[in-house]
Amino acid sequence: MKRVITYGTYDVLHYGHINLLKRAKSLGDYLIVALSSDEFNALKNKKSYYTYEQRKKILESLRYVDLVIPEHDWEQKISDVQKYQADIFVMGDDWKGKFDFLKDYCEVIYLPRTPDVSSTQTKDYLTNNKT
Ligand code: C2G
Fold it and tell me: Beta partners for 33?
């Protein structure tokens, strides 16, 4: 039973997110998503459109996601990997190298981001094309 863990805000879900989650799940049997809380998003200078509870509900509906846990800070990854017995940590490669300290605890894999799509881009488009 290979357990995979990944982290993110996952606001305004799009096919780039789905590509990441699908590939992450394909690396193992069980995928845990640590979902950024609204407070942590503020720390990341991100204001999500959907609240944590709304984003959690959306992720939990996906076939690739087995468990959603809250991400409250930058410091919880090592304890999460241990607590949830994650064998693999996965992130998009915009984070390449940033989480290599986890290599002492699990496999660390950075996957290529899906080009030309982002929550910000979608939100900007909708804002600028309000009819
Ligand atoms: N992603 C992707 N392709 C995109 C957009 C996002 O592969 N076009 C990936 C990101 O690399 C990340 C995941 O989808 O692995 C979630 O993206 P965000 O919600 O933007 O997550 P982020 O704000 O990068 O939070 O502790 C880590 C942070 O919580 C990561």
Answer: 6, 68
